[in-house]
Specification:
single chain; 0% strand; elongated
């Protein structure tokens, strides 16, 4: 995929992960949108599932304490 090529090329040229740079330099919805675009389709789904499951776990623990 083109996103994978872009991410790999960025990492080779800059020496840092594109996702980590976007997270550091941006915030809010712009950060979220660009990070998701940089991950590609499958990794976007995985990233979103991880966020939802982490949020659900934290919410559950807050209600059971």
């Amino acid at each position: 995929m083109q996103v994978d090529v872009l991410s790999r090329t960025f990492e080779q040229m800059v020496g840092k992960s594109l996702k980590k740079v976007l997270e550091k330099e941006l915030s809010g919805w712009l950060e979220n949108g660009l990070v998701l675009c940089s991950l590609g389709p499958l990794n976007t789904d995985i990233h979103l599932l991880h966020r939802v499951s982490s949020t659900a776990y934290l919410s559950y623990n807050e209600t059971t304490d």
